[in-house]
């Protein structure tokens, strides 16, 4: 029998998706009005135990709004990770601010220790404001990204942020469902620990609405202003009065219908992804030169993406392994290129980026869809062990 193609990550739409979308179409509420949007917002807020949620067209749009409502303005600075997807950083530019790139720790998320050293040694804290000595600009916020569903060390991040009066924006686009299970933040979900958090429902995320995003916060003021900005900043519904420049960022009823059906299955997806991760881990354990990046202790991750570390002792390097797997119908991808090395950001400040460079050179993402079965995983792992045993 011919081997089937194993994709990296594809959506899983086998629940009530078609039913709910059909309802939306039949009701003729297909745009940004309609009952599914509010219901989806309530559903996500309840699941992550946040005060409220505001839907948007994408995670990127959500991050744009998050920066605005956190008061990040033209010529301010924002501390951001270098090892992540570029959509986490582009919104900093949308508001005219400047990113300062930080290194990662061994969870692949932003390193709070290095970030603290940066604030301590490269900045001055005067009258409640953190000023970057190098640029003379004010540092206003930190964007953390819970990379691949792995929780950033929020205990340390929040500590540094309160010490220096910085807002914390959580890019939880990859981490819906990830939460602490012990420690100070036990029970708290990624996205709800900082000032404001954002999820994405893009096609490759743990749940999808085709495209879409959600802002969550425990601060009612931030939520109210987010809703206002995502709906054209209308201060009077009837007379079209607008009190500031807003955006057309609200999600449609069609997207939300998909979202509600996906939310019904989220815990199931996570369960499957966790089981699959553990099987991979068990099988990869015996292969010299390979290991999987683990999720933070004291948390229940959502196991969204699996990161395989390819050591120097493995017979193939990152690109060699990806090529070999592709030849055998297994789709993989390298981790993102560092954002501070991307053309729009090469002139921005990057602070001691070291570990991120190593991870960039050694990590391959392997198939992780919730549709994956045991046979698929065994096949991938057989391929992984082939170059060693050859
Ligand atoms: C997917 C993603 C985004 C953007 O979400 P969209 O809904 O695609 O706009 C932002 N940051 C990270 C880290 C992501 O993975």
Automatic annotation (TrEMBL):
<feature type="modified residue" description="N6-(pyridoxal phosphate)lysine">
    <location>
        <position position="205"/>
    </location>
</feature>
<keyword id="KW-0808">Transferase</keyword>
<dbReference type="InterPro" id="IPR015421">
    <property type="entry name" value="PyrdxlP-dep_Trfase_major"/>
</dbReference>
<comment type="similarity">
    <text>Belongs to the DegT/DnrJ/EryC1 family.</text>
</comment>
<dbReference type="InterPro" id="IPR015424">
    <property type="entry name" value="PyrdxlP-dep_Trfase"/>
</dbReference>
<keyword id="KW-0663">Pyridoxal phosphate</keyword>
<feature type="active site" description="Proton acceptor">
    <location>
        <position position="205"/>
    </location>
</feature>
<dbReference type="InterPro" id="IPR015422">
    <property type="entry name" value="PyrdxlP-dep_Trfase_small"/>
</dbReference>
<dbReference type="GO" id="GO:0000271">
    <property type="term" value="P:polysaccharide biosynthetic process"/>
</dbReference>
<dbReference type="InterPro" id="IPR000653">
    <property type="entry name" value="DegT/StrS_aminotransferase"/>
</dbReference>
<dbReference type="InterPro" id="IPR026385">
    <property type="entry name" value="LegC-like"/>
</dbReference>
<dbReference type="GO" id="GO:0008483">
    <property type="term" value="F:transaminase activity"/>
</dbReference>
<dbReference type="Pfam" id="PF01041">
    <property type="entry name" value="DegT_DnrJ_EryC1"/>
</dbReference>
<dbReference type="GO" id="GO:0030170">
    <property type="term" value="F:pyridoxal phosphate binding"/>
</dbReference>
<protein>
    <submittedName>
        <fullName>LegC family aminotransferase</fullName>
    </submittedName>
</protein>
<keyword id="KW-0032">Aminotransferase</keyword>
